[in-house]
Amino acid sequence: MLHKKIHFCSQCGGDEVLMQVPSGDTHARPVCQDCGHIVYQNPTVIAGCIIEHEGKFLLGKRAIEPMLGKWSIPAGFMENGETVEQAAVREALEETGATVEVLGPYSIFSVPQMNQVYIIFRARFVGFEQPFGDETSEVSFVTKDEVPWNELTYPAIGQILTRYINEEDHGQFGLYMGCYEQGLVHPFGNANPCIN
Ligand SMILES: [Zn+2]
Protein backbone atom coordinates (compact mmCIF):
# COMPACT_ATOMS: atom_id res chain seq x y z
CA MET A 1 0.00 0.00 0.00
CA LEU A 2 1.96 2.95 -1.26
CA HIS A 3 -0.66 5.61 -0.52
CA LYS A 4 -3.77 5.84 1.59
CA LYS A 5 -6.80 6.80 -0.46
CA ILE A 6 -7.70 10.42 0.24
CA HIS A 7 -11.42 11.14 -0.14
CA PHE A 8 -11.53 14.79 0.89
CA CYS A 9 -9.00 17.58 0.66
CA SER A 10 -7.85 18.69 4.11
CA GLN A 11 -7.44 22.27 2.88
CA CYS A 12 -10.64 23.02 0.96
CA GLY A 13 -12.85 20.00 1.60
CA GLY A 14 -13.01 19.19 -2.11
CA ASP A 15 -13.94 15.63 -2.92
CA GLU A 16 -11.88 15.14 -6.06
CA VAL A 17 -8.42 14.09 -4.95
CA LEU A 18 -6.54 12.17 -7.64
CA MET A 19 -3.16 10.50 -7.89
CA GLN A 20 -0.89 12.66 -10.04
CA VAL A 21 2.78 13.48 -10.42
CA PRO A 22 2.96 17.15 -9.38
CA SER A 23 4.95 19.49 -11.60
CA GLY A 24 8.66 19.12 -10.85
CA ASP A 25 8.07 16.01 -8.70
CA THR A 26 9.10 12.40 -9.31
CA HIS A 27 6.34 10.54 -7.43
CA ALA A 28 2.59 10.27 -7.94
CA ARG A 29 0.75 11.81 -4.96
CA PRO A 30 -2.83 12.65 -4.05
CA VAL A 31 -3.56 16.10 -5.54
CA CYS A 32 -6.74 18.10 -4.88
CA GLN A 33 -8.34 19.01 -8.18
CA ASP A 34 -10.07 22.04 -6.65
CA CYS A 35 -7.29 23.90 -4.83
CA GLY A 36 -4.15 22.04 -5.96
CA HIS A 37 -3.18 20.92 -2.44
CA ILE A 38 -0.64 18.05 -2.56
CA VAL A 39 -0.70 15.35 0.12
CA TYR A 40 2.77 14.10 1.03
CA GLN A 41 2.70 10.68 2.68
CA ASN A 42 5.96 9.31 4.06
CA PRO A 43 7.02 6.33 6.17
CA THR A 44 6.59 6.38 9.92
CA VAL A 45 9.42 5.55 12.30
CA ILE A 46 8.95 3.03 15.10
CA ALA A 47 11.53 3.22 17.88
CA GLY A 48 12.18 0.60 20.51
CA CYS A 49 14.83 -1.06 22.61
CA ILE A 50 16.11 -4.27 24.09
CA ILE A 51 16.45 -3.46 27.79
CA GLU A 52 19.37 -5.33 29.37
CA HIS A 53 19.74 -6.09 33.05
CA GLU A 54 22.01 -8.67 34.68
CA GLY A 55 21.95 -11.14 31.80
CA LYS A 56 18.22 -10.76 31.24
CA PHE A 57 16.12 -8.48 29.08
CA LEU A 58 12.72 -6.92 29.61
CA LEU A 59 9.60 -7.97 27.73
CA GLY A 60 6.10 -6.59 28.02
CA LYS A 61 2.80 -8.38 27.45
CA ARG A 62 0.35 -6.46 25.31
CA ALA A 63 -2.98 -5.52 26.92
CA ILE A 64 -4.50 -4.18 23.70
CA GLU A 65 -4.99 -5.17 20.09
CA PRO A 66 -3.26 -5.80 17.81
CA MET A 67 -1.47 -8.84 19.25
CA LEU A 68 -3.34 -8.80 22.57
CA GLY A 69 -1.65 -11.13 25.06
CA LYS A 70 1.57 -11.42 23.05
CA TRP A 71 5.02 -10.45 24.29
CA SER A 72 7.38 -7.89 22.78
CA ILE A 73 10.20 -5.53 23.47
CA PRO A 74 8.88 -1.99 24.04
CA ALA A 75 8.50 -0.05 20.78
CA GLY A 76 6.16 2.51 19.30
CA PHE A 77 5.64 5.37 16.91
CA MET A 78 8.03 8.27 17.12
CA GLU A 79 6.38 11.61 17.95
CA ASN A 80 7.07 14.98 16.37
CA GLY A 81 9.63 17.04 18.26
CA GLU A 82 11.66 14.16 19.68
CA THR A 83 14.78 12.31 18.59
CA VAL A 84 14.60 8.62 17.80
CA GLU A 85 16.62 7.87 20.96
CA GLN A 86 14.14 9.89 23.03
CA ALA A 87 11.28 8.00 21.39
CA ALA A 88 12.80 4.65 22.35
CA VAL A 89 13.34 5.80 25.95
CA ARG A 90 9.80 7.20 26.16
CA GLU A 91 8.25 4.02 24.78
CA ALA A 92 10.20 1.96 27.30
CA LEU A 93 8.89 4.14 30.14
CA GLU A 94 5.29 4.13 28.85
CA GLU A 95 5.09 0.42 28.09
CA THR A 96 7.16 -1.03 30.94
CA GLY A 97 7.52 1.75 33.53
CA ALA A 98 11.29 1.45 33.24
CA THR A 99 13.84 4.20 32.97
CA VAL A 100 16.57 3.17 30.52
CA GLU A 101 19.82 4.48 29.11
CA VAL A 102 20.41 3.96 25.39
CA LEU A 103 23.65 2.07 24.70
CA GLY A 104 23.69 1.97 20.93
CA PRO A 105 21.76 1.21 17.75
CA TYR A 106 21.09 -2.48 17.21
CA SER A 107 18.72 -2.92 14.30
CA ILE A 108 17.49 -0.64 11.54
CA PHE A 109 15.03 -2.27 9.23
CA SER A 110 12.49 -1.12 6.70
CA VAL A 111 9.06 -2.56 6.05
CA PRO A 112 8.17 -0.89 2.75
CA GLN A 113 4.98 -2.96 2.51
CA MET A 114 3.74 -1.06 5.59
CA ASN A 115 5.61 2.21 4.97
CA GLN A 116 7.43 1.76 8.28
CA VAL A 117 11.01 1.98 9.51
CA TYR A 118 12.01 0.25 12.75
CA ILE A 119 14.97 1.56 14.73
CA ILE A 120 15.79 -0.66 17.67
CA PHE A 121 18.45 0.17 20.27
CA ARG A 122 20.18 -1.73 23.01
CA ALA A 123 19.52 -0.04 26.34
CA ARG A 124 20.57 -0.46 29.97
CA PHE A 125 17.91 -0.84 32.64
CA VAL A 126 18.17 1.93 35.24
CA GLY A 127 15.10 1.28 37.37
CA PHE A 128 11.34 1.14 37.48
CA GLU A 129 10.08 4.69 37.75
CA GLN A 130 6.32 4.36 37.34
CA PRO A 131 3.60 1.74 36.74
CA PHE A 132 3.47 0.50 33.16
CA GLY A 133 0.79 1.99 30.94
CA ASP A 134 -2.57 0.72 29.73
CA GLU A 135 -1.04 -0.92 26.65
CA THR A 136 0.72 -3.46 28.87
CA SER A 137 -0.68 -6.11 31.22
CA GLU A 138 2.57 -7.55 32.57
CA VAL A 139 6.33 -7.04 32.31
CA SER A 140 9.04 -9.57 32.94
CA PHE A 141 12.81 -9.85 32.81
CA VAL A 142 13.61 -13.08 31.00
CA THR A 143 16.77 -15.07 30.42
CA LYS A 144 17.55 -16.49 27.00
CA ASP A 145 15.97 -19.77 28.14
CA GLU A 146 12.73 -18.11 29.23
CA VAL A 147 11.77 -16.30 26.02
CA PRO A 148 8.14 -17.12 25.11
CA TRP A 149 9.05 -17.83 21.48
CA ASN A 150 5.56 -18.92 20.48
CA GLU A 151 3.93 -15.92 22.13
CA LEU A 152 5.88 -13.07 20.56
CA THR A 153 4.05 -10.35 18.65
CA TYR A 154 5.86 -10.62 15.30
CA PRO A 155 8.47 -12.90 13.68
CA ALA A 156 10.80 -9.90 13.43
CA ILE A 157 10.85 -9.67 17.24
CA GLY A 158 11.86 -13.32 17.43
CA GLN A 159 14.60 -12.75 14.87
CA ILE A 160 16.04 -9.78 16.71
CA LEU A 161 16.01 -11.61 20.05
CA THR A 162 17.62 -14.70 18.50
CA ARG A 163 20.44 -12.58 17.14
CA TYR A 164 20.77 -10.67 20.40
CA ILE A 165 21.10 -13.89 22.43
CA ASN A 166 23.62 -15.34 19.99
CA GLU A 167 25.72 -12.18 20.01
CA GLU A 168 25.55 -11.82 23.77
CA ASP A 169 27.00 -15.33 24.03
CA HIS A 170 29.92 -14.16 21.88
CA GLY A 171 30.31 -10.85 23.69
CA GLN A 172 30.12 -8.69 20.58
CA PHE A 173 27.08 -6.92 19.18
CA GLY A 174 26.64 -5.97 15.53
CA LEU A 175 24.31 -3.52 13.81
CA TYR A 176 21.67 -5.09 11.59
CA MET A 177 20.40 -3.15 8.61
CA GLY A 178 17.87 -4.52 6.19
CA CYS A 179 14.29 -5.24 5.34
CA TYR A 180 11.95 -8.16 5.53
CA GLU A 181 13.52 -9.97 2.59
CA GLN A 182 17.19 -9.34 3.19
CA GLY A 183 19.58 -7.74 5.57
CA LEU A 184 23.14 -7.57 6.74
CA VAL A 185 24.76 -7.49 10.16
CA HIS A 186 27.55 -4.95 10.35
CA PRO A 187 30.25 -5.43 12.99
CA PHE A 188 29.82 -2.69 15.51
CA GLY A 189 31.31 -1.90 18.88
CA ASN A 190 29.38 -0.95 21.99
CA ALA A 191 30.37 2.70 21.96
CA ASN A 192 28.47 5.10 19.71
CA PRO A 193 29.49 8.77 19.73
CA CYS A 194 26.15 9.81 18.17
CA ILE A 195 24.01 8.86 21.16
CA ASN A 196 24.89 11.31 23.92
ZN1 LIG B 1 -8.38 21.27 -1.97
TrEMBL record:
This is NUDIX hydrolase. Its cofactor is Mg(2+). Belongs to the Nudix hydrolase family. The keyword Magnesium applies. GO terms for molecular function: hydrolase activity. Residues 42-166 form the Nudix hydrolase domain. Pfam families: NUDIX, Zn_ribbon_Nudix.
